[in-house]
Amino acid sequence: MSETPAAPQGDLTLRTPAMPRDANAAGDIFGGWVMAQMDSASGIRAAERARGRVVTAAVKEMAFAKPVKIGDTLCVYTRIQRVGRTSIVLKVEAWAQRYLSDVMEMVTSADFVMVALDATGRPTPVPPEA
């Protein structure tokens, strides 16, 4: 991961508490759970922009800088970087709001590539912005 920003970049798209069922025996939240939350946030934001169904096509280079612990609130921020013909590339940041505090620490970030689909499941053009 490159230099950690002092504050989240993008729009807050998802907030969810990290629970014991999402953790290993040491109380660290599974990286796969964090990635799933980021994927969900990407889907929300991309579907709004595409005004329809989207799927994840790729996730580019994710590295974890800090752990998420039980009780933290995972805050996922998204920003659209680029809109192609059928794809939307989003920069997604995951931040941990530490349990019972205002302290926010960046956990990881990645580029998510989402593809717009039509009713038959085939790639479809992303409509122009409204």
Short structural summary:
This protein is of the alpha+beta class and 130 residues long. Helices cover 15% and strands 38% of the residues.
Overview of the molecule:
This protein is an alpha+beta fold. It is 15% helix and 38% strand. The chain contains one helix and five strands; from the N terminus they run E-H-E-E-E-E. Strands 1-3-4-5-2 form a five-stranded antiparallel beta sheet, covered by helices on one side. The longest helix is centred in the N-terminal third of the chain and has 20 residues. The radius of gyration is 15 Å and the shape is elongated. The mean pLDDT is 96.
Topology, element by element:
Layout: E1 11-17, H1 31-50, E2 54-60, E3 73-83, E4 87-97, E5 104-116
Antiparallel strand pairs: 1-3, 2-5, 3-4, 4-5
Helical content band: 10-25%
Strand order of the largest sheet: 1-3-4-5-2
Number of helices: 1
In total, the number of strands is 5
Q: Strand count, sense and closure of the main sheet?
A: 5 strands, antiparallel
CA-based shape: elongated
Structural class: alpha+beta
Order of helices and strands: EHEEEE
| Rg for CA atoms | 15 Å
Beginning-to-end CA distance, first to last residue = 34 Å
**What are the segments in which pLDDT stays under 50 over at least 5 consecutive residues?**
none
What is the typical, i.e. mean, pLDDT?
96
Beta-strand proportion: 35-45%
